[in-house]
Amino acid sequence: MNFKPTALVTTVVALLLGAPAGAQKPPAPPSAAAQIAELMKAGRTEEALARAEARLKDNPRDAQVRFMRGVILAEQGKTVEATLVFERLIQEFPELPEPYNNLAVIQAAQGRYESAQRLLLQALQAAPNYVTAYENLGDLYLSMAQAAYGRALELDPNHRTAGPKLEATRELANRLRQPR
C-alpha cells in the first residue's frame, strides 16, 4: 500500500513587509525546526538528524523536533528507533495525532494491521479532521482485504469468489500506487 507518514509543513513568514527602515528589529533566525525541515527537504537527512539531536540535548521536550527526528529515522529505515520516538511522543503528548499516524505507517509496513488500525483511530480521535489518517485508514483496509482474500485462497485454492476479489483489490492497490 501507499501509506503516508505525516508530512512536515513549515511556513516561513517574512517580517519585513512594509516597515520603514530601522523601525523594526532584524528578523529572527529561522527556528531549529525550520532549519531541520529545510535540511530534510534538501535530502540532507544525516545533517538534519545531527541538528535535531543537538537541539534535543538542550531542549529534550521539544515535541516538534522529536517528531522530526522520528520521521528522519523512519526515512533512514531505522524503524526500531523511529518506533520508540513515536511511542514516547504518544505517551507524553497523547493529544498530537501525527505520532499515532506515523507509528501506524510503520506497523502497517510490518503487516501489523490491527495495531495500525488502532493507532489510526486514535489519531482520528485526537484530530477528527485529520485527512492523512483517513487516507491511511482506507489504504489499511485495502491491505487487510487483500490479506483476508489471500488467506481464504490458501485455505481453499478453488474458492470461486475469493480469487476475483483478491485480484480486484490488487488491481485497485496498483492503480492507487501510480503517480498522478
Rg to the nearest angstrom? 21 Å
Structural class: mainly alpha
Arithmetic mean pLDDT? 88
CATH fold naming of the largest domain: Serine Threonine Protein Phosphatase 5, Tetratricopeptide repeat
Explain what this protein looks like in three dimensions.
The protein folds into two domains: 63 residues, Alpha Horseshoe (Serine Threonine Protein Phosphatase 5, Tetratricopeptide repeat), CATH 1.25.40; 84 residues, Serine Threonine Protein Phosphatase 5, Tetratricopeptide repeat. The two termini are 15 Å apart. Helix 4 runs antiparallel to helix 5. The chain has 180 residues and is an all-alpha fold. It has eight helices and no strands. The longest helix is centred in the C-terminal third of the chain and has 25 residues.
Topology diagram in text:
Layout: H1 32-41, H2 45-58, H3 63-75, H4 79-92, H5 97-109, H6 113-126, H7 131-155, H8 162-177
Helix pairs in contact: 1-2, 1-3, 2-3, 3-4, 4-5, 5-6, 5-7, 6-7, 7-8
Index terms:
single chain; mainly alpha; Serine Threonine Protein Phosphatase 5, Tetratricopeptide repeat; 66% helix; elongated
Give a short summary of the structure.
66% of the residues lie in helices and 0% in strands. The chain contains eight helices and no strands.
